[in-house]
Design goal:
6-stranded antiparallel beta sheet, 6 strands
Length: 230
């Protein structure tokens, strides 16, 4: 029958090893029967293992401590403050219904069919006092040209008092205004509201003096798409 392994060292003692004298570290290590050949058998996680390895090596056992173990321990000692800070921040669950892509595209999954999604977005735009300019039924245009396309409609709307500020900073920003929002159905039958991230647009045009306006635009588009979000 295999003898049970050594009792894992409590976390507060693990951390205290790094700030104690060599004699104190040796006493604590001996009390818990810690050795480099046992440390990495612990299941408490990499931070526990690396800290224990570091403590063993620094307690006067350098000759018995493998070089790889010493390096791992020293690296862990430097990373401990960072790891503790990260672990203290609660993980934020990703929202599968809202996807921000690297190319500046934001996709929001709709809880409604295409037509209902368009209707609700137009109603929300109107309720906010935003000007609605045009709805382009791309799938119909494709059908008229003999091309089969899944449901896809481009909605164009905006607030001149807000959007025009971007063009005073860089006239070429007009290529991205008014706001364009695409309502599209994918191959799975899921409906998405898709738009350009305003922070991405600001970077694209090198606009650095309209942070407040871009922040407002981001809040508005997020609010509009939330009216159909699943």
């Amino acid at each position: 029958m295999t003898a049970p392994g050594p009792e894992p060292l409590p976390l507060y003692l693990e951390l205290s090893l790094l700030t104690r004298s060599s004699r104190q570290r040796t006493t604590i290590a001996d009390a818990y029967r810690i050795g480099s050949h046992l440390v990495f058998q612990q299941t408490g996680g990499s931070v526990h293992a690396a800290v224990m390895a570091h403590a063993w090596c620094m307690s006067g056992n350098l000759k018995e401590c493998p070089m790889a173990t010493r390096i791992a321990g020293l690296c862990a000692a430097a990373l401990i403050p960072f790891l503790l800070a990260v672990s203290s921040v609660p993980a934020r669950a990703e929202d599968p219904g809202r996807q921000a892509l690297e190319n500046g595209i934001v996709k929001v999954k709709s809880a409604y069919p295409v037509d209902e999604t368009i209707k609700r977005i137009k109603q929300d735009v109107s309720s906010k006092g935003i000007m609605f300019f045009l709805a382009v039924d791309q799938s119909k245009l494709a059908s008229d040209a003999g091309i089969k396309l899944r449901p896809s409609t481009l909605l164009i709307f905006g607030n001149p008092a807000l959007g025009s500020q971007f063009m005073t900073s860089n006239p070429i920003a007009g290529i991205d205004w008014p706001v364009r929002l695409l309502v599209v159905e994918d191959e799975k039958g899921e409906v998405w509201a898709v738009y350009n991230d305003f922070a991405y647009i600001a970077g694209r045009h090198g606009i650095t003096d309209r942070d407040t306006a871009f922040q407002k635009a981001s809040e508005v588009i997020a609010s509009i798409t939330s009216s159909v979000a699943k």
